[in-house]
Amino acid sequence: MTMPFPPPSARADESPLLVVLPVRNGEPYVHQLVASLIAQDDPGWQLVVLDNYSTDRTRDTVRAFNDSRIELIESDRPLDIYHSWHRGLAVAERFAQSNPLTTFVGHDDWFYPRFAGLAKAMARAHPNATLYQMMLDLVDVQGRPIRPGKPVPERESWLDMAAAMAWNFRDSVGTGYLFRARDYVRVGGMPHLPRILYADHLLFLRLARLGYKHAGTDTGCAYRLHAGSTSGSMSAPKINDQVEAYAGFVDLFVAEFPEIRQSDTGRAALQTWIGRELYLFDAPAVLRTLTPANRERVAGLRRRLEDLGGKARPDHWSYQAKGQLHRTLRHVKLHGKFGLARWRDRLSR
Question: What pTM value is reported for the model?
């Protein structure tokens, strides 16, 4: 999607940082997130809360801050997660003229006091970058540290970024990424994929392709990893959504970035990415959960991998996928989706 914008007339680092928060029933955590913005060393920020018909006290919690920098936009009906987050495109369009540095955040994450200042400093020092990444900490549901985020090089092209994602060198979370509002509009906002799984991957690759990605060295935020996070745990419906989303992501990615197949690095990355996911999708206990349409999507991924010259189950992909696969099947087993025989069938492979 290309918008007929003139060259930027306002520097993103001089405008207030725009934070967009799509949320539904975020009462347990949203206070901590908003309070972390109130506590910023740099007071130049604005928060747009996109409430998705919450039935708890999320809206009351936000209103209680009584801060002119906070705007609450309410939905008149429940929205699925894509349409809830897609409202952020209209927010970016509204702010496109001033073109602020923009970030989206989950309601259960939070910012460290230097986040806004560090973000603006990155944009000021690297004005030609079209995507920025702040380092983060992974924390558990109680907010206790798990580990720092994986290291990221200072500068990456979209191809380097895609390869790093494929080889699992990155934490696949959306928190901590920043971009200019106008660029977000240019790429059409959040891609339409089930549960927005892999959508942030495609979004950030589209943004990086406009220029390049710059990553800072300072840690500016915390990402909460728990059963409520998309990346935290999986059930049978989530597995089906993941297959549909991943197949859709690969189709869009290959169509939009044909150069990925024209270099050894790109082909190897794509082979690894598809192969790692197939290691998960091809497990018998996982295959039994899939709808006929999703089984065909898995078959299509196998064919695509073979066209790239890869094998369906190479040993060097098993290490990367093993942890995710065991977490998936453990979660499914604990929720009564499969019997012990099926669990043993997986472990015996």
Answer: 0.85
